[in-house]
Amino acid sequence: MKEYIDRLREEHTLDREGFLTLLSRRDPATQEYAMEEAVKVRRQIYGKDIYIRGLVEITNYCKNNCYYCGIRRENRKASRYRLTPDQILDCCRDGYQLGFRTFVLQGGEDGWYTDEILTAVIKDIKREFPDCAVTLSLGERTFESYQKLYDAGADRYLLRHETATEEHYRKLHPQDLSLEDRKTCLRDLKEIGYQVGAGFMVGSPGQTYAHLVEDLLFLRGLSPHMVGIGPFLSHQDTPFANEPNGDLDLTLFLLALIRLMLPKVLLPSTTALGTLHPDGRKLGILAGCNVVMPNLSPSGVREKYLLYDNKIATGLEAAESIDLLKRQMEEIGYRIVCARGDYPVS
Ligand code: SAM
Description:
alpha/beta; TIM Barrel; 6-stranded parallel β-sheet; 3-stranded parallel β-sheet; binds S-adenosylmethionine
């Protein structure tokens, strides 16, 4: 099994069979080796630096009805909110003081945020904080819309592909959403010039190792600047309420494989990982991650942006606890840096 890890580290890919063997015959020794090698690769590129992003959850209104997501349109129990442009700017001001140099504006697909409103917000953020990067994670929009937001100053866009297999995509989404559209958006974003992030949930209902192999090969082909993966976690008011959560070790293993496959990738240790296990975020770093995204949303709305049950909203997750996070990272030999943390160019 170690030879597969060595080959992945050297050649940055495996064939379908190689990935499938790694995933289906994974044992503790292979897992440990993969994580150690991923950490070495990450250190060669990023040293001990861990980048932080301030996450601003701007709206939990969503026109979509993804079966897994707690803010899906048909969840009538969700208490809806949207932040005004002034509130978003205030979050960035707080974040800047705390040392954040990237702001991630994330939300459901909410038509209230027209191109006009978003371009004005992005320009305001860039005017006040010219040394900061703006990342958007607002779902599917047209090429023209992505272009306008980019021209306004947005630097990066996160849009997980969710699953690269058509048949699995259909199990997770209603008919009005399509994998082809999702992939078109990712290609558009790349063409425009964004630093692009794709990704998927580990352990989403109906997912097999064969699906995960396709996800890895899709990522390899797309070669994104960022990859967001985290465990699927069930939400009580969704059709997947009774589905089991994704597995911690499998998520860590996949993070390590992604680091070996895409050495320079910006790889966050996600909130979902921190929700699944109290040390999840730390373990993510020890599997090759180099980014954490503490929450900068106003405290009054944090408990409303509930994609899944028990989402962490206090403690290390909160941006105000940045000192605690710094200490936790120092304990395992890393340091949080105050920088934009772009994808390395060379
Ligand atoms: N609406 C935007 C989009 O679709 O890209 C951004 C917001 S969406 C809520 C962000 C991500 O949350 C999704 O890409 C999905 O992978 C993740 N997510 C949603 N429900 C989840 C769940 N139950 N467990 C884990 N992750 C989940």
